[in-house]
Amino acid sequence: MYQQMIFVNLPVADVDTSKKFFTELGYTINPQFTTDDCACVVISDTIIAMMLSKQRYADFTKKQIADSSKTSEVLLCLSAESREKVDELVDKALAAGGSTSGETQDHGFMYGRAFDDPDGHTWEVMWMDPAAVQG
Asked: What is the distance between the alpha carbons of residues 103 and 3, in angstroms, rounded to a whole number?
């Protein structure tokens, strides 16, 4: 059965810093699609984050590249299997050089926190009670 994938492409100031940051979160780098100006971060079987140097990113767009430390171009949200896993990933991100983004969201059936990576891209991490999803 075909599984659709998502490839998130993000401009970064330093590819090596991004590689270090995301491997410290527990993700792997696919060397087949990683070069000096691009890192292929494998988040899951269907989610890939391509960390592109700003010069390489500019090859794919005619638009001005947003300064993600000052503007928000996208909010990325990853699911987590439990509240504890939300805290674990965000705490790893903060220890690896990320910064807190926003307030913790606790609605009982849904729990989330967010961090900004070294380039200012916001990553939300969210858990939702499976019973609430099923209705």
From this structure: 33
